[in-house]
Design brief:
Number of strands: 13
CATH architecture of the largest domain: 2-Layer Sandwich
CATH topology of the largest domain: Heat Shock Protein 90
Helix content: 40-55%
Distance between the termini: 146 Å
CATH class of the largest domain: Alpha Beta
Structural class: alpha+beta
Strand content: 15-25%
Strand order of the largest sheet: 2-1-6-5-4-3
């Protein structure tokens, strides 16, 4: 038989349970407090570490800011001190910043002004690319795009003094060339003039036979004609330009040269070969000057070959240009002589003026073309004259 618990016994068990729960609760509380204290301590350590890192970052940022401020100040002073003008443009082409040199150049404040408006109204293009005239100044203008912001930087260099010195140097060079040319011309004139004076002096002799008088007179006229030819060549070379232009066919030009040189070549026993691939092409220029230039080339070729030799005039078209090649199978030209072929008054012939090839090159350049020479000793020489073709005429 089970004896029932009395109320006194139940009352004694309850306090024991409450004390155990309370002790367990205190243990849990103490454990949580310790964990919270440890977490707080760790948090304080992290805060201290982050504070130190933040202070270091702030110090680095402050140093970078100070360095950038110093760099900005130096760049600002540099822009202000630059003798060249600097203009900063935004993406729309408006002026964002301009240094004092740029404002001095234009004589006005450039802030927010559009660069195309400044360029069109104030700057006048010159013959030199990239250089402009502004009142009595000459400016070299360079526009450089900015990759990042889409703007541009305009650099203005005052090249007025440089241009003046360049013009002066070119003038001095021309004067020196004229002086050298005058000295060479005087040397060239002296020999035929002395010969003409000598022949003319003999005509005064009363006992001179009539036959001898005629012969001496003819020689005098020949020397005077040589002087006239030299003066004409010199004037043509000095003028350096071709006056009077007309459109004429290449076929007519070649026919005239063939008609002139066929009998000369036959008389010397030289074969003249003319090969033309040109059709109805036309040249716009001075026909007389071009005939004279090609005549000089053909005469030199005939002088370079002996009897039984061959001179060829080949004509062909290359794109929009006409190529006329004069070849001979003569002795060829030495390298040291070849480099001086186009020098005025340089000649290897006793009766030459030394201006034929120089005039031929001048005529070619005046027509927008050029002339070149190739030669090999024992093989022959080739002069190549290139000329631009005239536009094709319209046909109904």
């Amino acid at each position: 038989m089970t004896v029932s618990e009395t109320p006194a016994t139940a009352a004694s068990v309850a306090p024991v349970l409450d004390q155990a729960n309370l002790a367990e609760a205190f243990r849990i509380f103490n454990q949580a407090s310790e964990e919270l204290s440890s977490a707080y301590t760790a948090l304080q350590g992290q805060v201290a570490t982050l504070s130190a890192e933040l202070a270091a970052a702030n110090g680095a940022l402050r140093q970078q800011y100070q360095e950038k401020a110093a760099l900005t100040e130096r760049l600002s002073h540099l822009l202000d001190a630059l003798p060249a003008g600097v203009i900063l443009l935004d993406a729309e082409g408006r002026t964002v910043q301009a240094n004092p040199a740029a404002e001095v150049v234009f004589g006005a404040t450039l802030s927010r002004l559009a660069w195309p408006q400044i360029e069109d109204r104030r700057l006048v293009p010159t013959d030199t690319p990239g250089e402009y005239a502004l009142a009595d100044k000459r400016l070299a203008v360079t526009v450089t795009p900015l990759d990042s912001a889409g703007g541009r930087i305009v650099l203005l260099h005052d090249v007025t003094e440089t241009h003046r010195l360049r013009v002066q140097a070119e003038r001095n060079e021309r004067l020196a060339a004229m002086g050298e040319m005058a000295a060479q011309l005087a040397h060239q004139l002296r020999t035929p003039l002395a010969a003409a004076l000598l022949y003319a002096g003999n005509l005064e002799l009363p006992e001179l036979p009539e036959k001898s008088r005629v012969s001496i007179a003819q020689k005098t006229v020949e020397r005077l004609k040589a002087l006239e030819r030299l003066i004409q060549d010199t004037l043509m070379f000095a003028r350096g330009e071709v006056l009077g232009r007309e459109a004429f066919s290449v076929v007519d030009l070649i026919a005239e040269l063939r008609h002139t040189f066929d009998p000369l070549a036959r008389a010397r026993g030289i074969a003249l070969v003319v090969g033309s691939e040109a059709g109805v092409e036309h040249i716009n220029g001075n026909r007389k000057a071009l005939v004279g230039a090609l005549t000089n080339l053909l005469e030199n070729a005939l002088q370079a070959v002996d009897a039984g030799g061959e001179v060829t005039l080949a004509v062909r078209r290359e794109g929009d240009r006409l190529v006329l090649a004069v070849r001979d199978n003569g002795r060829g030209i030495p390298v040291d002589t070849l480099s001086r072929m186009f020098e005025p008054f340089f000649t290897t012939r006793g009766d030459g003026t030394g201006l034929g090839l120089a005039i031929a090159r001048g005529v070619a350049r005046a027509h927008g073309g050029g002339i070149d020479v190739r030669s090999e000793l024992g093989v022959g020489t080739e002069f190549i004259l290139t000329l631009p073709l005239a536009a094709e005429p319209d046909h109904d």
